[in-house]
Amino acid sequence: MNIPRLALPLFLVTLIAAPAFAGSVIEVMHPWARPTIPNRPGVAYFGIHNQGDAPDRLIGARAEGVGKIELHKAAQKDGIMTMAPVDGLEIPAGGMAHLGPGGLHLMMFGIEPPLKEGDILEMTLIFEAAGEVAISVPVSKTMGDPQHHGKGHQHGTQHQNGTTGN
Ligand SMILES: [Cu+2]
Fold first, then answer.
1. Considering only the top CATH level, what class is 3-163?
2. Is 25:130 a contact under the CB 8 Å cutoff?
């Protein structure tokens, strides 16, 4: 890289001011988790932007009050929604990955107490290269995304489709 000497200090300051851990190139966008009922697993979704110049992999997650978190992939098979655990999720250099309803999701087991609307779940994502990235996951029935949808976005019920959200 050909960065002029004078520009370097500013560049470093920007990196240190980034969210999560100093120097992390992983940005987690619009996380959310669905409310849960007792003794049932829950799901969490978000987008991941890898701002680095090398690929990285999401390899695990943990959260307070959650016994176990697995990365799952849901798929439509003969009209039936199925899902299976996957080992990890690669995020290409400079690229994105998305977890969302009907696709990849974090499956959370042993949630105590159950998650209710308005809660914030503090979660730690574990990346192969970037290490641990702490995120705050709002609990909501729909994807609450004030950062990307602007002010005045209404969280109506019309997006609810009655699926279990996997
Ligand atoms: Cu699942």
1. mainly beta
2. yes
Q: How far is the CA of 115 from the centre of ligand 1 (A)?
A: 16
Tokens 């370097």 label which residue?
Answer: 8
Distance 107 CA to ligand 1 centre (A): 5
Structure tokens at 143: 């994807």
| Number of Cβ within a 10 Å radius of residue 5 | 6
Q: Tens digits of per-residue pLDDT, 78-115?
A: 999 899 999 999 999 999 999 999 999 999 999 999 99
Token pair 């996997």 is at which residue?
Answer: 166
What global pTM score does this model have?
0.73
Q: Please list the alpha-helical segments (H only) found in 18-160.
A: 146-149
Question: What is the per-residue pLDDT for 14?
Answer: 46
How many whole angstroms from 122 Cα to the centroid of ligand 1? 19
